[in-house]
Amino acid sequence: MESIDKAPTSAELEILNLLWQKHPQTVKEIHETLMDKKDVGYTTTLKIMQNMATKGIVQRELNGKSHSYSPVLKMEETRGKLLDNFLENAFGGSASSLVMQVLGNKNTSRAELDKIKNLISQFEKGK
User: Fold this and answer.
1) What is the pTM of this model?
2) 102-124 pLDDT, tens per residue?
3) How many domains is the chain partitioned into structurally?
4) Residue 9 sits in which domain range?
5) Which of 35, 38, 76, 112 is the most exposed, fewest CB within 10 Å of its CB?
């Protein structure tokens, strides 16, 4: 993963997810998408994205009168690092404890359980 000062905040991660789906995007485009989910001010979106550029999470490019933003961090590497940190900090590094917690907190359907079993089977075959 690219070198960054610290992991993305939840607000930054929300914006990163939008940029991973489509980039580059302007602050206005990101803000409009965020407004579909929650009430957030334009200046708040702008400030978060400016901070992300300063931290090296996104790159900013002047495009006419506005700036376009693209992710610097790669999606899979970022998610992997965040998950590794979460797993270590919340579950003492135990993947089985994490899975048990997830399954215990939600009414998991038979179809989801079958999919999980299939993924585990495929994972075991690959090792």
Assistant:
1) 0.79
2) 888 878 889 999 999 999 999 99
3) 1
4) 1-127
5) 38
